[in-house]
Design a protein that fits this description.
The chain is globular, with a radius of gyration of 22 Å. It contains six helices and 23 strands. The protein is an alpha+beta fold.
């Protein structure tokens, strides 16, 4: 088998982008409440060659463009508040223009200022609506890492879905498949596109969950018990080791509701449980399952009030998956360094968040000089 790509080049105007990023960065100067900010463009290009004794000859590329914006502030209670935006692409034309980046930057500043005055909630137990694309990030955390067919972890019974093949792991209306051969979804780049994996195996679609039933792992040429071959998901780690890697995940459902219907369902559950409000999550911390942008929805008035102060979800990944009861029809792309997920907003019947004690420390005696 042979596959060759023509050598690719970086195709952007470096000087123009330097000026553009400087101009966007200056916007933060008009917002003294923002203590730290950073905007960057990272581009990488790696030409890869693979030759093995089976006659496989491959020349392909790992190429990517990433714009990242980070900003943070500190509330009067000395609680850190941060926000970030990232965009991935495969060529210069994929990158958003200056007006789009300015729009996203101003949204971030608005989001931070709303949360600076947010109500602090020390804990929550009840239904949660997770909006897209935050739902994609959560599902990557819940499903993505748990479908990697790592033989060592499998033999040590460390995989979450161990002994759950052909058994129910989530709502019967939900199906999930992985497909690294899809580069764009509705015009937006997906961050984990490739045609051949790190072992030269052709990438393919794998149905991971069918109608709520776990069906398959993503595997390398060192498969786990019950499987006799790779399905094209070998990835090279920083230690030059081959391990199964995450890909582009697509979450589908047979019974789609509108976002408003999902919201009404959230309110109905709150009334059944005599709760004064329900929780809507719009953004998660990128390293842990901690909401960094959330509102409480008053079930009587429909008013949304920004809240924060939660620690990580206090239940297992399987419990969260089992409690997904409804999905909307508003699929959006969520890109991360490790994988992509195309998913709609989801309604979780019950989640518990505990108080994040690290946030509530004694404030310093002297105010920050930046204020």
């Amino acid at each position: 088998m042979e596959y060759y790509e023509e050598t690719k080049r970086i195709d952007i105007d470096k000087k123009a982008w330097e000026e553009r990023l400087k101009s966007l960065s200056l916007i933060f100067r008009n917002h003294p409440e923002i203590e730290k900010s950073r905007i960057s463009l990272e581009i990488w290009l790696e030409i890869r060659y693979l030759l093995n004794s089976e006659g496989t000859r491959i020349k392909d590329h790992d190429i990517g463009y990433q714009i990242k914006i980070d900003a943070s502030a500190t509330s009067q209670d000395e609680i850190p508040v941060a926000s970030s935006y990232a965009f991935y692409g495969y060529k210069g034309d994929d990158l958003p223009d200056e007006s789009k980046l300015k729009e996203e930057l101003e949204k971030m500043i608005e989001d931070i200022n709303k949360r600076l005055d947010s109500e602090i909630v020390t804990g929550y137990l009840g239904p949660v609506l997770v909006e897209a694309p935050a739902s994609g990030f959560l599902l990557l955390k819940l499903i993505g890492k748990n479908i990697l067919g790592n033989r060592e972890k499998y033999e040590d019974s460390e995989l979450l879905f161990y002994n759950r093949l052909n058994r129910k792991v989530t709502n019967r209306s939900i199906s999930v498949y992985a497909d690294p051969t899809i580069q764009y979804h509705e015009g937006l780049p997906l961050s984990n596109y490739y045609l051949y994996d790190a072992e030269g195996v052709k990438a393919q679609r794998v149905n991971v969950i069918e109608n709520g039933i776990f069906k398959n792992y993503l595997m390398t040429r060192t498969p786990i018990k019950g499987f006799n071959q790779s399905n094209g998901y070998a990835s090279m780690t920083g230690q030059a080791k081959i391990k199964p890697g995450m890909s582009n995940l697509f979450v589908e459902t047979k019974t789609k509701l509108s976002y408003e219907e999902l919201k009404e369902k959230l309110i109905a559950i709150c009334k059944e449980q005599n709760l004064p409000y329900g929780l809507i999550i719009r953004r998660f911390d990128t390293t842990r399952k901690i909401p960094t942008s959330a509102v409480k929805l008053d079930i009587d008035t429909g008013q949304e009030t920004p809240v924060f102060g939660f620690d990580a979800v206090s239940v297992s990944d399987l419990t969260i998956l089992d409690k997904i009861i409804a999905l909307a029809d508003d699929e959006k792309v969520c890109n991360t360094v490790k994988g992509s997920c195309v998913a709609p907003s989801i309604l979780i019947e019950e989640l518990e968040f505990k108080e994040n004690k690290d946030l509530f420390k004694k404030p310093p005696l002297i105010d920050s000089p930046l204020k």
